[in-house]
Amino acid sequence: MIISDDQLMNLVVQSGLVHEKNVQELIVFAKAAEMSLFDAIVEKNNIPEENLGHLIANYIQIPFISLSKTSIQEDVFHLLPERISRKYKAIAFYRDNKEIRLALADPSNHNLALHLAKKTNQPVMVYLALERDINNAAQLYRKELQIIIDQLIGQSSLGMDTFTSLDQAPIAKIVDTLIDYAYQNKASDIHIEPQEKYSLIRFRIDGILHDVLNLPKNFHDRIITRIKVASKLRTDEHQSAQDGKMRLRLEEEMLDIRVSIIPIADGEKSVLRLLSSKSRKFTLSDLGMNEKDLKKIQDAFHKSYGMILSTGPTGSGKSTSIYAILKIINTREKNITTIEDPVEYRLKGVNQIQVNTKTNLTFAAGLRSILRQDPNVIFVGEIRDVETAGIAVNAALTGHLVLSTLHTNDAATTLPRLTDMKVEPFLVSSTVNVIVAQRLIRKICDNCRISYLLSEFELNKFFSPEVVKKHFMFTEENHEIRIYKGSGCKLCHNTGYAGRIGIFEVLEVSPNIKKLIVEKANSDVIIKVAIQEGMTTMLDDGIEKIAQGSTTIEEVLRVTKVQL
């Protein structure tokens, strides 16, 4: 850290970002969670990292640069070798006739700036940058995966039959390289699919599958065998599905990987789910929740009882949102216990139980046991059946804060869904505090973002005139507005998108909503009243993010399934 913890704490208190009475609580939280004070302030107070970066930069009197919002000149970028860049967390990002601009996670490293100035015969201007920004920008160093794999395959001129050990090159290195490359490119899954003439490797990045590599067909079975051995699965079983786990030590962390293998027509297909703990270091603000909705969530989780429900389809970020809440309320005074299927991410200080149907440890059975463990907060991975719903509602009614997820399309349909699960309407109205419906949308890549003008007439092709008038400002003289998109670059793999944020619909169960629940009103009536009371729908939230330049029209339409 470039400034001491005491200096940082004084800074955030003086700036009003943290109240003085919360200082000791933050210190205890950071120590218990084994994280830096910087990370603790971000986690606990939903303060964007960039805000803290600006604060520290002003204090040490060095300019701050957000690399994620900066177009980096690639020829300038390579002024620093990759080894030096990664070792010292440094990125050269700009050069003109007057100076070179160098971003450092620790600007006190004067030697690197002096070395670069001597090497180029130009003055070097030092900037403070977030370490996460620097690590993301370092992707420009990476070679194309196909080139790396071809080099591994070509390392031996002896032919594949010579390699008798799975630890010999190229098999072991190919598997490790695939995983490392997927991790560095923020892929959530690796698909290894046998085709008729080759083996296809695909990565799921920001929710979209991308073809990234073709391997010779004779490598496929050996790669699958390597994965089976690392996952402790049967190598002689080829006709049935197998599930397992493996771990790989990367430079950044020890990565847990969930493995699924199934037989298909051309061989065995494997899907590797990368369970990166670092990828879950998000606050609700990082996830794209606006201040109004954030206030509703905070009011709900500061209560000691009731239910907070997160809804949406698989892959919509429900668990990420719940984990963000759990990290905020996780203190030594609370006993937080979860029942999950599976436990994908470990939270320090939280008791996490893995569902195991073989031993009859179901959601319902586990929830019953948790209630005998004197919990304050309970997270039920998913409410799937009548029994789990009944126990969860009763737990919320008897003085526990219960968080859970449901598979519904929007916030309002969650309420009739609970009633369908045989939960009495008066119990639903008494226990549910807030419901969060969400989807994940891809963000425009900041490195290649460009703008263009779109007319009111063209916007009306995508959205209703009422929606357009609500979110976009047109005048009699000006019938165009500025919209953004990504042109495609190396950092975003020419997709125009990098990273994801959520679009949210937060329904607070107000007295009027409670009355409608007891009267068994349908979801359309509940939505109408909720909107009248100020609820922002997911579509509205998505359009706001279009207007802000965070995402594109096509992306919002894709995830909200709006028909053109």
TrEMBL record:
Domain Bacterial type II secretion system protein E: 166-558
Keywords, alphabetical: ATP-binding, Nucleotide-binding
Pfam families: MshEN, T2SSE
Residue intervals of the Type II secretion system protein GspE N-terminal domain: 61-141
GO-annotated molecular function: ATP binding; ATP hydrolysis activity
Keyword ATP-binding: yes
Family matches, as InterPro entries: P-loop_NTPase, T2SS/T4SS_dom, T2SS_E_N_sf, T2SS_GspE_N
GO CC term (a single one): plasma membrane
Keyword Ubl conjugation: no
Origin: domain of life: Bacteria
Membership in a protein family: Belongs to the GSP E family.
Descriptive protein name: AAA+ ATPase domain-containing protein
